[in-house]
Design goal:
The protein has 506 residues and is of the alpha/beta class. The chain contains 17 helices and 16 strands. 42% of the residues lie in helices and 16% in strands. It has a six-stranded parallel β-sheet with strand order 6-11-10-7-9-8, with helices on both faces. The chain has a five-stranded parallel β-sheet with strand order 2-3-1-4-5, sandwiched between helices.
Length: 506
C-alpha cells in the first residue's frame, strides 16, 4: 500500500518522506524501496545514523533542490535543517512509536502534505480519531501467503521450559530472540545462555551499542550467523528475520499491550510455526492492568488481532487528548455528550459543512440508558453505535438506526431504546428552544428560554394532559409534568414536544 502510494506521489511530481523509528528499519525499507523501484527514474535516499555526516549534508541539500524523490529516515528527517522542495506524501511506519510533536513537525514543512500512517496496533489517540471520523482508516485483515498464527504462552519464568523451547528451535535450524530488557545485566544473561547452549552462537543487541557494532549484529542475524540474539525492546520495530521463530520475553508484565503485540510480530514471518513465551518473574506482584494486558495478548493470537488489541488498549488507557499531546487518557473530564458535539463540529468544519445554529439542551431523566456489553461485545462497534445514536436528528434517523440494530444485533434491550429516545428528545427540545429537561422524582420540568404562553396553555388544556401540566412564567419559565403511577416518562416528554411542534407550525 505504502509503495504504491509513494509511486503515485512521485510520478505526480511530489516528494515522499518515509518516517521510521529505528535505523535498522530505515535500512530494511531502503533496500525494499530500491528493489521495487528498480527500473524507474526515482532517486531514493536514506537519512539515519548509518549514513556518514558528509553524505547527510549532500542529501539535505538535494532534498531542498528537489533532486531526491523519496527519502527514508528516522527522527533525522524531523530536524530543523531539513527542507523539501515539494513534499506531497508523508508515510509514517510504526506510527505508535512517535509522539504527537514528531508527527506534527513534518506537517508544518508543507501545507499540503498527505499523511499515511502504518501500524499493527494504533495508539489510543490515533484509533479514537479514526473511529470518530477525524481520520480515515483501512484495516488489512488478510495475512501474507503461508503465514500461520504465533502460538503464545504466558507463564511464570521456568528455566527448564524456556531452555527446551530454545533447543527445539535450534534443532530445526531456526533462530531465537531472547528479550532481556536490562542493559546492565544483558551481557551476563548472554554469557549464561552461551554456557547453556555451547553449540549455538549467542550475540547481544541493544540501543546503546555503537552504530557500526549494532549494524554488524543485525547483518549477522539476517544472514543466519547468529542463533540466539539476546536483546532489548530494540527489536520491537519492524525487524524482519524470517528464520527467527521462537521468542522469549522476560518480565512481560512490565510492558505495554501494543508493545507486546509488536514484539511478538518479530517471529512468525515465514511459513514455519512460531512460538512466543511471555514470562514473568516467580513470586512477582502483577497489577490488575498488567494481568489484563497479558490475558489480552494470550487471547488475541489470530491474524488481524492487532486491531482488537488496539481496541482493548483504548479501553484500558483511554482515548487521549485530540487537541493536545496526550496519546492516551479518558474522556470523563469532558463528558460524552460534549465530547461528541465538539468532535462533530470540528469534523464538519474541516469538511466545509456549515455549522448548525442549534442551542444545546441537557437531558437528565431517571432511566437506564446505555449499550450493554452483552448486546454488542465489540468495543469498536459499541463506540460506533454510540456515535450514531448521538447523531440522531429525526424520527426517520431513529427508525433507520432501530432497523439496523435489529438486523445486526437482534432485539434491542430497554436501555438502548432509552438511549435512542433521549437522543430524539434532546434534539427536538433544542430545536424548540428548551434549555434543559430534568426529572426529580415524579416531576419532569422542561425549561425554556422564552416560553410561548399561548402554546403552553393549549398543551396544558389538551385532553391527555389535563391536570398533569403546570406552567411557570417566573425567572426560569418552564412546563412541569407531574407523572402518575404507570406513566412512561420518555413517552410523555415526546408527546409534549410533538404537540408543541405542531402548535408552533400552525
Amino acid at each position: 500500500v505504502a509503495l504504491r502510494a509513494a509511486f503515485k506521489a512521485v510520478f505526480g511530481g511530489k516528494q515522499v518522506a518515509v518516517l521510521v523509528p529505528t535505523t535498522i528499519l530505515a535500512w530494511q525499507h531502503y533496500q525494499t524501496f530500491q528493489a521495487r523501484f528498480r527500473g524507474y527514474p526515482v532517486n531514493i535516499q536514506m537519512l539515519s545514523r548509518f549514513v556518514s555526516k558528509k553524505d547527510q549534508i549532500e542529501i539535505v541539500k538535494d532534498l531542498k533542490r528537489g533532486n531526491i524523490d523519496i527519502v527514508i529516515g528516522t527522527h533525522r528527517i524531523l530536524q530543523r535543517d531539513i527542507e523539501f522542495d515539494d513534499l506531497g506524501l508523508l508515510i509514517v511506519d510504526e506510527e505508535q512509536r512517535f509522539g504527537v510533536t514528531h508527527k506534527e513537525r513534518i506537517k508544518t514543512l508543507s501545507s499540503d502534505v498527505h499523511v499515511l500512517t502504518l501500524t499493527a496496533t494504533p495508539i489510543p489517540r490515533t484509533l479514537n480519531m479514526a473511529l470518530s471520523g477525524i481520520r480515515d482508516m483501512s484495516a488489512l485483515e488478510e495475512a501474507p501467503m503461508d503465514r500461520v498464527p504465533v502460538q503464545t504462552y504466558v507463564l511464570e519464568h521456568d528455566d527448564e521450559i524456556i531452555n527446551e523451547a530454545i533447543r527445539r528451535e535450534l534443532r530445526r535450524g531456526g533462530q531465537v530472540f531472547y528479550l532481556h530488557n536490562f542493559v546492565d545485566s544483558i551481557y551476563t544473561k548472554g554469557a549464561k545462555l552461551a554456557e547453556t547452549f555451547p553449540e549455538a552462537k549467542v550475540a547481544i543487541g541493544h540501543g546503546k551499542m555503537e552504530k557500526e557494532q549494532l549494524s554488524d549484529v543485525w547483518s549477522d542475524m539476517l544472514s543466519g550467523n547468529i542463533d540466539i540474539l539476546v536483546c532489548t525492546t530494540i527489536i520491537e520495530t519492524g525487524v524482519n528475520v524470517p528464520n527467527a521463530n521462537t521468542l522469549i520475553i522476560e518480565e512481560a508484565n512490565r510492558m505495554g499491550l501494543s508493545q507486546l503485540h509488536q514484539i511478538r510480530g518479530r517471529v512468525g514471518r515465514s511459513s514455519r510455526k512460531a512460538y512466543a513465551y511471555l514470562t514473568f518473574r516467580s513470586g512477582s506482584l502483577i497489577s490488575d492492568v498488567a494481568a489484563k494486558r497479558l490475558e489480552a495478548i494470550r487471547e488475541f493470537t489470530e491474524f488481524g488481532s492487532g486491531f482488537k488489541i488496539a481496541m482493548r488498549d483504548l479501553e484500558l488507557r483511554g482515548a487521549g487528548n485530540i487537541l493536545g499531546a496526550e496519546q492516551s487518557g479518558h474522556m470523563e473530564a469532558v463528558g460524552y455528550d460534549l465530547y461528541i458535539k465538539i468532535l462533530e463540529e470540528a469534523v464538519n468544519e474541516q469538511k466545509g459543512i456549515p455549522p448548525k445554529h442549534k442551542l444545546d439542551c441537557s437531558v437528565d431523566i431517571s432511566v437506564d440508558a446505555f449499550i450493554p456489553e452483552k448486546y454488542i461485545q465489540s468495543s469498536k462497534l459499541r463506540i460506533d453505535v454510540y456515535r450514531k445514536i448521538a447523531n440522531i436528528e429525526s424520527f426517520e434517523d431513529r427508525d433507520d438506526l432501530l432497523d439496523e440494530l435489529l438486523d445486526r444485533f437482534g432485539e434491542l434491550p430497554a436501555s438502548v431504546e432509552n438511549l435512542i429516545d433521549i437522543s430524539i428528545i434532546r434534539n427536538a427540545a433544542s430545536i424548540l428552544g428548551f434549555s434543559s429537561v430534568e426529572q426529580k422524582g415524579n416531576l419532569i420540568s422542561l425549561y425554556h428560554r422564552s416560553l410561548d404562553m399561548d402554546i403552553s396553555s393549549q398543551i396544558a388544556c389538551a385532553k391527555d394532559f389535563k391536570g398533569k401540566i403546570m406552567i411557570s412564567a417566573g425567572a426560569k419559565p418552564h412546563l412541569a409534568i407531574r407523572l402518575k403511577s404507570g406513566d412512561c416518562n420518555l413517552k410523555i416528554i415526546k408527546e409534549v414536544l410533538n404537540i408543541y411542534t405542531n402548535l408552533l407550525q400552525k
